[in-house]
Design goal:
The chain is 23% helix and 43% strand. The protein is of the alpha+beta class. A hairpin with a 3-residue loop joins strand 1 and strand 2. The chain is flat. About 24% of the residues have low confidence.
């Protein structure tokens, strides 16, 4: 029979342990719109180098459209930017 320590080791060996380092890259810069504590970003995840048009929803101001390239683009203060999404158009 396995003891408590042996059982725990068997479970971790069978399931695999997920470390914070494994989870950090995916959570660091997700694709699309995301906010940090104070800033809003749009991350255009692509491998083809395309540039896309995004619509940015701004609090107490007209919405706007931007052309963004691959990677992360700073949109402004998270208090001011309410969201952003891909319009379906390239630029």
């Amino acid at each position: 029979m396995l003891g408590a320590v042996g059982s725990a080791a068997l479970v971790f060996a069978t399931l695999g342990a997920v470390t914070p380092a494994d989870a950090a890259p995916a959570a660091a810069n997700p694709c699309g719109f995301y906010e940090t504590g104070s800033d809003a970003f749009y991350n255009h995840c692509t491998s083809d180098g395309s540039r896309v048009v995004i619509k940015i929803e701004v609090a107490h101001a007209p919405d706007t459209e931007w052309c963004v390239g691959p990677g992360r683009t700073w949109l402004g203060s998270a208090a001011r930017i309410q969201g952003a999404h891909y319009t379906g158009r390239l630029c």
